[in-house]
Amino acid sequence: MLEYELEFLLSNNPSYGFEHIPDRDREYLEVPYREKEEAKKLGAKWAKEKKKWYRKKDGRGGGSLKRELDKYKIVYLDIPFSEKERAKELGARWCPNKKSWYTFTENMTNFPSDDHGGILAGEDRDFGGNTLFVDLIPKSCWFTNVRYCIDRADWDTLRRRVYKRVKNICECCGKRVRKGESLEAHERWSYKDGIQKLERVVALCTICHQVTHYGHSKGLVGEEVLRTHLKHVRGFGDVECEEHIQEAYRLVAERNLTDWELDLSMVTDNGFKLARTVRKEDRRSISAARSESRPPRSESRPPRSESRPPSPRAAARNK
Ligand SMILES: [Zn+2]
């Protein structure tokens, strides 16, 4: 029996102790034939039925191994016909099945413009789904976010790409922003094995963004406003809404215990340079120093049961 057949049988039979990974949880990779052994060592698996290598979207092959496999990830490009020769020179390849150009993520720095329709290399656009949820940031990570590490102009370029691809529609509630309003970019992070990794940037309307940063926003707009929107978008009753918020605070309390290493490979993979880096040992003290010099935020403190209207000053700050 061929090795791959054996592996396929084993991986599809839970009784052998191998996990079956459903198609929706797989991320397919373009592994050149001569590199298949290396990819296998890094945790890539062979899908015989599709004749393709894949990895689990997170979990197996995670951590540094997962990052090593990133070089086999591809990004589809939107290349105008007149540009195809130049694109080929820059590392674009043609996929006859999809009838689309693609390139490996390591070549993405060659395509820094909006040519590729706002797709960000290495981004997991399924991460966190398109569901609205309270997404509290651990205290040690406050302030040392993407905007802290890249130049303002780069951040503006990155977020405009994200806004453009969603055509001015909030990715969580589906509301189209009106003239004069604008979307806001929200960073979605994974927290695993001591690493806080940027996985995705979503474009949200203001109120959805405020709900995600519930702890920060409740003093600005009041808990009632946030809860009403969350209940409306998620179809929650009062009890489900309360449980959802309490669970978010439980999770952030757990994450507060770790000094997280910041992984911004998604930013650098897309050709943006880090203006500054931050050591995980320093993040907690940066957070503490900045919290002292700014109005207090309260993402770590559970909500009060009663809502409090914002003070006029807080309301003005939010404008
Ligand atoms: Zn929204």
How would you portray this structure in words?
The strands form 3 sheets. The chain has a 3-stranded antiparallel sheet. A 3-stranded antiparallel sheet has the order 4-6-5, with no helix packed on it. The chain is α+β, with helices and mostly antiparallel strands and 319 residues long. The N and C termini lie far apart (67 Å). The protein has helices spanning 3-11, 36-41, 63-69, 84-89, 146-149, 152-165, 206-212, 214-221, 223-234, 238-255, 265-268, 280-293, 312-317, and strands spanning 26-29, 45-47, 52-56, 74-77, 93-95, 100-104, 184-192, 195-204, 261-263. Helix 7 (206-212) crosses helix 9. The radius of gyration is 22 Å and the shape is globular. Mean pLDDT is 79; it is low at 1-17, 59-64, 304-312 and 314-319. Strand 2 and strand 3 form a beta hairpin. Bound molecules: zinc ion. The site of zinc ion has 7 residues, from loops.
Task: Give a short overview.
By secondary structure, the protein is an alpha+beta fold. The protein has 2 domains: 3-116, no CATH class; 139-317, no CATH class.
